[in-house]
Amino acid sequence: MQVLSVVRKWFLLAAAGLCLVGVQQAGAAVDKKLTLGCLAYSEPMVQWIKEGLEPLGYQVKIMMFDANQLPATALKDGNLDGIIANHRPWILTFNRENDCHLEMVKPYYFHSFFAIYSTRHKNLEDIPNKAQIAVPGDPTNMSRSLIILEEAGLITLGEKTDIFYTVLDIKDNPKDISIIETEITQTARSINDVDAIIATAYFVSEAGGIDPASFLFEDPQNKDYALGLIVRDEDLEAEWAKLAMDTLHSEPYRKKFQEHFKGKYTLYP
């Protein structure tokens, strides 16, 4: 009887150990469930992350949004694990305005080509008096657009009255140019309705089939507006985030990037 009792105890302990292992494995499986957000332009990139992570045991769900601020809001609220959507200066502004801590995983992935485009005029000098120029209306990109207009010689800015330049900071506007504020994903769609727009090469090409290289003036600071995988700061060193960037920076996926975007975006080295 005593032998049977010992055997029975050993069996129960072993069973309990197997149950604990099962619970730990289930927990690990749950930890490997990811939801990534994107906009239409960045959907291929999160698909590439999915392709790279799923053979490693991750389950990746992708959610696409149709407004520029929605992915970041969902990430802040804990409804997503990561996004590819906005450039880093935009995210830093979003953090200040929403008291949150989103950050871009290093090494940064790519940057956009931001420039002045027009279907009405072939040269910057051709932009007439009282021209209308459409620009993104969010604070970061509005400020960036005004700086571009100053660098292009079309306006002069005074001192900033806030963190970012606004139209109220225009000191000199010799051509009496009207600045038309638009939602960033819609700016390029205005190209045939105004004298010029300030937008990324990607949106210009997608909206109007325009050659990305046919700009009137390029933003000299393009490389400072990094784009890539954004997470909550506690996930910056997460294994999945590092593996995601390893996938994107691998040679096969760098090649896919170049073939898909055809110069509309630029990879970092």
Automatic annotation (TrEMBL):
Give the family, as the similarity comment puts it. Answer: Belongs to the NlpA lipoprotein family.
Question: Which InterPro entries does this entry report, sorted A to Z?
Answer: Lipoprotein_NlpA (IPR004872)
The entry's cellular-component GO terms read: membrane
> Topology with regard to the membrane?
Lipid-anchor
The protein's name is D-methionine transport system substrate-binding protein
Query: Does the keyword rRNA-binding feature in the UniProt annotation?
Result: no
Main location class: membrane
Task: State its location(s).
Answer: Membrane
Its signal peptide is 1-28
* A Pfam cross-reference name: Lipoprotein_9
Write out the entry's keywords from A to Z: Lipoprotein, Membrane, Palmitate, Signal
